[in-house]
C-alpha cells in the first residue's frame, strides 16, 4: 500500500539549471512503513473571501496530541467552471500563519500536522468570486 | 518571458479505487497571467542539529510577491528530519527522502523560512523561484 509523489521542475531562468525530478514515498514518521490513512481526494468550492478550515486536524487524526506523526497535504486551485484565473489566488494558512497564495492552476505539497495542538489547514480566497480547491491529506 | 513549470504526479493505492493525479502549473508573478517568475536561487546545505537556521529571509521588498519554494531532504536515514518553520510556526517535518513545494508568501519582513535538524546532520537541497529581489547595498 504505497503512496508516492513525483515532482518535476523545469525553468529557463538560469542557463545552467537542468531541472529537478524527485520522487518520495510517503511514510510514517521515522520509519520505512508506508503511510496508511488519507482524507481521500476531495473538492471544495469557495465563494467568499472569508477564512475557512479546509482540513480540520481533529477530524482526521486519531491522536492530535502525538508529536511523532507524519502528514503530507496536497492542494490545487483548479479555478471555477473550467476557467483558471492566474490573477486571483487563495491564501493557505496553518493555524493562522500564512504559507502562501495558490493562484489559478497552482498546487502545493507540504508536510503538516506535527505539533501537539490542532494545526488546521485554512484557506482564504482573495475575493468573493467562486473558486474550487482539490485537496488530499495523507497521514498517520 | 521566463518560463518555470512545476509538475507533480501523485499516486496512491490506499483507497479501493486507486488515486492518480497529474498536474502542472506555470509559475507567474503575483496577480498576473502574462509575466512569469524571472529570478531564482538554489542551494545545498548541511544542517547540524540543535540550532534553528534561516534558510530564506523575508524582506520588505518581497512582501506579497510570488515565491515558489522547493526543499528536499537528501538524508538517507529515515529517522532524520528537518522541521520547516515559517514565521515561528512549525509547519511540518521533512524526513529523509521527503520533498515539499509551496508558494511562500512573505506577508511581512519577519516571515522567514527556517529549518531545524533532528536526528543528525541533514543535507537539504532547495530552490526558490521568485520575483523582485534586489541586491543589498554594500555595508562594509
Please outline what is shown here.
The complex is a heterodimer of chains A (140) and B (140). Chain A has 140 residues and is mainly beta.
Keywords:
heterodimer; A: 140 residues; mainly beta; Jelly Rolls; 5-stranded antiparallel sheet; B: mainly beta; 4-stranded antiparallel sheet; globular
Word description of this protein:
The complex is a heterodimer of chains A (140) and B (140). Helices cover 0% and strands 48% of the residues of chain A. By secondary structure, chain A is mostly beta strands. Chain A has one domain (38-139): Sandwich (Jelly Rolls), CATH 2.60.120.510. The two termini of chain A are 13 Å apart. The model of chain A has no long low-confidence stretch (mean pLDDT 90). By secondary structure, chain B is an all-beta fold. Chain B has a domain at 39-130: Jelly Rolls (Sandwich). Helices cover 0% and strands 51% of the residues of chain B. Chain B has strands at residues 4-12, 19-26, 39-47, 52-56, 67-73, 81-86, 89-95, 99-103, 113-118, 122-130. In chain B, the strands form 3 sheets. In chain B, strands 3-10-5-8 form a 4-stranded antiparallel sheet, with no helix packed on it. The interface between A and B is large, with 67 and 64 residues. Strand 1 of chain A pairs antiparallel with strand 1 (4-12) of chain B.
Amino acid at each position: 500500500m504505497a503512496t508516492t509523489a513525483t515532482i518535476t521542475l523545469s525553468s529557463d531562468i538560469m542557463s545552467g539549471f537542468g531541472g529537478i525530478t524527485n520522487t518520495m514515498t510517503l511514510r510514517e514518521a521515522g520509519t520505512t512503513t508506508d503511510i496508511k490513512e488519507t482524507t481521500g481526494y476531495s473538492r471544495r468550492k469557495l465563494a467568499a473571501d472569508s477564512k475557512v478550515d479546509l482540513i480540520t486536524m481533529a477530524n482526521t487524526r486519531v491522536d492530535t496530541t502525538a508529536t511523532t506523526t507524519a502528514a503530507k497535504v496536497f492542494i490545487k486551485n483548479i479555478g471555477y467552471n473550467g476557467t483558471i484565473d492566474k490573477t486571483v489566488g487563495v491564501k493557505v494558512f496553518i493555524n493562522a500563519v500564512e504559507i502562501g497564495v495558490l493562484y489559478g492552476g497552482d498546487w502545493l505539497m507540504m508536510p503538516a500536522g506535527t505539533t501537539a495542538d490542532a494545526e488546521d489547514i485554512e484557506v482564504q480566497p482573495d475575493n468573493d468570486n467562486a473558486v474550487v480547491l482539490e485537496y488530499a491529506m495523507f497521514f498517520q | 518571458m521566463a518560463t518555470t513549470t512545476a509538475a507533480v504526479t501523485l499516486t496512491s493505492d490506499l483507497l479501493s479505487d486507486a488515486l492518480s493525479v497529474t498536474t502542472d502549473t506555470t509559475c507567474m508573478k503575483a496577480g498576473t497571467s502574462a509575466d512569469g517568475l524571472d529570478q531564482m536561487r538554489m542551494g545545498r546545505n548541511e544542517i547540524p542539529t540543535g540550532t534553528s537556521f534561516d534558510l530564506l529571509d523575508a524582506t520588505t521588498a518581497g512582501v506579497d510577491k510570488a515565491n515558489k519554494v522547493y526543499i528536499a531532504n537528501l538524508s538517507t536515514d529515515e529517522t532524520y528530519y528537518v522541521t520547516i518553520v515559517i514565521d515561528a510556526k512549525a509547519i511540518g517535518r521533512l524526513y529523509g527522502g521527503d520533498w515539499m513545494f509551496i508558494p511562500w508568501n512573505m506577508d511581512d519582513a519577519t516571515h522567514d523560512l527556517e529549518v531545524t535538524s533532528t536526528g543528525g546532520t541533514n543535507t537539504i537541497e532547495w530552490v526558490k523561484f521568485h520575483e523582485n529581489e534586489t541586491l543589498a547595498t554594500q555595508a562594509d
